[in-house]
Amino acid sequence: MEPIHSAEHSIYFESGLSPLKDIINQNQYSKIFVFADTNTSALCIPIFRSFLDEMEDFDIIETDPGEENKNIDFCIGIWKTLLDFGADRKCLMINLGGGVITDMGGFVASTYKRGVDFINIPTTLLSQVDASVGGKTGIDIDNVKNMVGTFSLPKAVFIEHTFLTTLSNREMLSGFAEMIKHGLIADAQYYETLKNSDYKNIQPQEIYRSVQIKNKVVTEDPLEKGLRKILNFGHTIGHAIETYALTHDKKPLTHGEAIAIGMICETFLSVKYCNLTTDELNDISKYIFSIYPKYKIKEKSFTKLLSLMQSDKKNEGGQIMFSLLEKIGNCNFNCRVTSADILSSLNYYNSL
Questions:
Q1: Disulfide: which of 89, 153, 174, 290 matches 254 by Cβ 3.0-4.6 Å?
Q2: Residue 142 burial class via C-beta count within 10 angstroms: exposed 0-12, middle 13-18, buried 19 and up
Q3: Which range of residues forms the domain containing residue 29?
Q4: Cβ atoms of 120 and 158 closer than 8 Å
Q5: Could you tell me which residues are beta bridge partners of residue 156?
Q6: DSSP state letter for 225
Q7: CATH number of the CATH domain containing 339
Q8: H-run or E-run covering 203
Q9: The three-state (H, E, C) secondary structure of 267-329, written as one string
Q10: Maximum average pLDDT range among 133-147, 228-242, 316-330
């Protein structure tokens, strides 16, 4: 498949990471660092080495896995490690891993000595179709997602299908939620295609279409002043539920599981605020429930969830802002929604 060109870099879909060595040779980097968590280091670095058996001159920087570690304390440790290794402004950071790694690695690279080059090699479905594309970097503050970050473009992104063989079905399902979102906000035909596909066996062309959709949106609105906000469909409520579950549940939700819940709730709100039809609401709710497990949103959490939504970056003038569906394949943004209706959407989800 042809590379997708995004602003000042390209997203490559060639097998074997073949253009990577050319990029490294052309830029003559002083040092190369591969940033990964301990899980990715064990499962994916062997694959990485097999593709680039001639490239041995790099240092590995490891961190603990999990969203709970995407914070400033871990970043300070990485900055100190780069200093200890003598990293200068001509070094390269290769972020090899899921969304936590590409988010945090991009943030570290974009701020170390006011910015060094980085390349994203996403190894999860979620990071391939979402986190690694678009130039957003970020870390969490007090478990609120991505409250500190930058807009900083990678030198390149490499989507390599082989890495998906290391994932569990649950991890595949997590990434699949973002693909569903892409269809719902921008391509009704793609949404129908996904309804007939198997999330356990995602095809490269389906990933390619998701990246095309996201890239088109972020290219038109790189700094999230307008259109790019549609990519947040399902995320205002979903992020709040994900954050709450991370701190209160014995088995926290994955990002995709939380976004699936958020999409159902925000589809419910779309009926009232954007004239989405009830048939479309029923279609979306039925489909999501056919593949995602039911989750009980505890009533005692409602006040805290509203508080978390108030911290969302997209809010304006103290009002919670949503991106909502006008119809399947078309999304509006900057929709003001009352707290009462948000609570109604949570109750709607619980009633299903």
A1: 174
A2: exposed
A3: 4-166
A4: yes
A5: 10, 119
A6: S
A7: 1.20.1090.10
A8: none
A9: HHHHHHHHCCCHHHHHHHHHHHHHHCCCCCCCHHHHHHHHHHHHCCCCCECCECEEEEEEECC
A10: 228-242
